Amino acid sequence: MSRAIALPVVRRAGIPVDRARRMRIIATSLLAGMAGLFAISRELVGLHPLWGYVLAFSEAAMVGGLADWFAVTALFRHPLGLPIPHTAIIPENKDRIADTMATFLKDNFLTSQVVARRMRGMNLAAAVGGFLADPRGGEGRLRSGAASLLGDVLESLDPEQLGGMVKHGLKAQLERLEIAPLLGQLLTAAIADKRHLPVIESFLRWAGATLEANEELIRTMIHERANTLLRWTGLDEKIASAILDGLYKLLAECIVDPEHPLRRKAEEGLESLADALLHDPEMQERVARMKSEILANPAMTRWLDAMWERMRAGLLRAIRDPRHALSGQFGESLAELGRALQEDSRLQHLVNRFSRRTVVGVSTRYGMQIVQLVSETVKRWDARTVTDRIEGAVGRDLQFIRINGTLVGGLVGVAIHTVDVLAG
Questions:
Q1: Residue 16: DSSP 8-state
Q2: Quick one: DSSP state of residue 42?
Q3: What is the pLDDT of residues 66-117, one digit of tens each?
Q4: CA 311 – CA 298 distance, rounded (Å)
Q5: CB 387 within 8 A of CB 87
């Protein structure tokens, strides 16, 4: 990652670079002030005993301030540009820091126990539902900063490696999914709610339209299969007309009569299929075999590749501009889904349980790959970028260490001088 985007990222994360620089100026000015006070008190120490305390304070404050300046500076660079051993710790140990960071994430955040405990305390479905229902609501600094940070992470991580992990995880979930019982439950629920009736009617109308569009082809087939006597007497044409009229009549009766025997046969066939999907091991094995063949097909791999790219691009658009990405008819559909996630407790339970199991499974199986991705990304950054980002994040607090070291050192100097005076 180039250094050009290092400072904007730091600013978006809520850590203004100028605040760290301002604190550095204050800490350095305080150190310079102690040096000036030391020079003045050294000249005036003989005028009054109080100047001895001032001299002790300023002298010890200089020592404490210089020591902490050296310690803070040594983290990020060589003090005064001198190649002193064990300085410029962060740039010199960038790769080791990346590996340590990855190990820390793996051991403390990506264990199944930690992930499961955190997921149990989260209502992810309601949170997602709230965002989908109103993506413009609550766009405060926290949401904007988190969205920008997530966008930067998605853009900076290796797309092929991250995409490979996502696709491999999705494919593994599909392979473990028992699809036959799921299809059986869906079909059973559809039949119970009479949602299969419009499908049957649509099929009948499609069959009628297909028959009408291919009427000449059917007549030609009957004519070609008729013997010479039928063709000579013209009976083949009458037979063709009778067959077509009978088919048209049968389809019309099926469409207008919900209790037609043919429709009942179709419904019985669907019920039988649903029962076989739920309870017949042979049917379940056949469906599982078909699923495995589909997943092993190269076309499926290409489809997963394309789906991941669309998902990643869509997610980036939504993060960068949620108002535009979640607008229009698609946005209205997502808003309706969001309201359902917010209001339906049963749907929330199902989504949260699935999310918890999925996240725990992913962290267990792919935790090492995830932290390796983080480690490799940090290793690809140049040393100056890593230094700038870490210093921008914690530099202000480190300058407080310098200020505290200067003041505490001065107080310790006064205490030592007081003990010395009292002992003398």
A1: -
A2: H
A3: 999 888 888 888 888 888 887 877 787 778 877 787 777 777 777 777 777 7
A4: 20
A5: no
